Each structure stands twice: as structure tokens, then as C-alpha cells.
Amino acid sequence: MRERRPSDAQPFVLWVLVLRGFGILALVCVMWLVWRRGYINRDQLAEGRPGDLLFFFIHGVHLVFHEAGHLIFMPFGRFMTVFGGSLNQVLIPAICTATFYWQGRYGSGAFTLFWVGQAIADVAIYAADGRDRLLPLLGDSDPSMHDWGNILSWWGMTERAQGVGAFIFGMGMTVMVISLLLQGLEVLRLAQHPEIVTTFEEE
């Protein structure tokens, strides 16, 4: 192990803290965007309007894991094939989070936990649309292929789609808030123990 010299360590630690702070601020902006869009604001998506570029970029990332989930869970029956899309888009960031925490990389774990929360909030939009089925599906699929339309129908909860969406959205926002708090605590920990970031393994 080697350590940076004291003269080098102080500005390095300062830069790390500043970058972490800006990272947290950026995530706060993302959370505000998610909150402003809300689980119930589906009109822009339904009408094909572009909306916020960042919002659609993030949704596109989730969509990749969502579609992969349908294939991954296909061997487990029809319900898991349909539900697997939403499950997988949350499961992937959750696995990343668990891996980082297992490795003791708490800052990275707190960051990917935010991803988990945003993925859950993204599912909420789909769930809230389970009754009306207004959202355009991938490849202009028939509305009967709507994941949450089918899931809620099987559960006998189609008329409660808005409530289900609200509950899932609340879960996502809660996870994002917890993530931001954990990241703030991590910044304080690094400020109090700069040796955490000034100690490196020799290559």
C-alpha cells in the first residue's frame, strides 16, 4: 500500500468531495424530473411527444433490461414472462447495488441504489397505465400485450391501476431519497476520514 504525500492528498480529497457533491446535486435534479413527470403524467408518452430528453434517455436504458427480462424469465411460465420485464429492470441495478456494498464500496452502492429507485418509478408509469393502456408499446404491439394491463387483470385489480401506480411510484421516490441520504453520509465520512480516498494499492 502507498499513500499520497500530505501536500498532494489535500487537494485530491477536496476534488473527490466536490465531484461527489456535484454528483448528488445532479441526482437531485433527476429526482425532481421524475417527480415532475410523475407516474400519472402519461399524456406526452401516449401522444408521442418528445418531452425531456434526459427522461427518455433514462427510460430507454430501463427498456433494454425490461425487454431482456421477458426472455430471461420465459422458462418460468406466462406470468413470470410478463412480470419479468418490470422485475428485471429493477433487479439489475439491485444486483449492482448489492455487489458494491458487499465489496465495501459504499459510495458506488448508494449511487446505484438511486438507479434502483428510478427504475421502480419507471415501472410505476407502466403500472398506472394498466387500465387505460394509452402508452405506445414497443413495435406498436397490440394493447392486449400491455404487461401491467395483463398483470392487473390477473390480480383482479384493473380498476385500481392508478392506486397501484401511486404505490409503486412512492416506493421509487422513497428509495431515491434514501440513496441521496446515504450518499450525503458517505461524503461526510470521506471528509472526516480522508485516508479512505488517499490510500491506494500498488499496481
Structural class: mainly alpha
Q: What percent strand?
A: under 5%
Strand count: 2
**N-to-C span:** 9 Å
Spatial strand sequence of the major β-sheet: 1-2
- Please tally the helical runs, counting DSSP H or I stretches of 4 or more residues: 8
- Main sheet summary: 2 strands, antiparallel
Brief account:
This protein is mainly alpha-helical and 203 residues long. The chain has helices at 6-37, 43-46, 53-72, 78-102, 106-128, 147-155, 161-192, 195-198; strands spanning 2-3, 199-200. Strands 1-2 form a two-stranded antiparallel sheet.
Explained architecture:
- With 203 residues, this protein is mainly alpha-helical.
- The chain has one domain.
- The chain has helices spanning 6-37, 43-46, 53-72, 78-102, 106-128, 147-155, 161-192, 195-198; strands at residues 2-3, 199-200.
- Helix 1 packs antiparallel against helix 7, helix 3 packs across helix 4 (78-102) and helix 5 runs antiparallel to helix 7.
- The longest helix is centred in the first third of the chain and has 32 residues, at 6-37.
- 31% of the residues are buried.
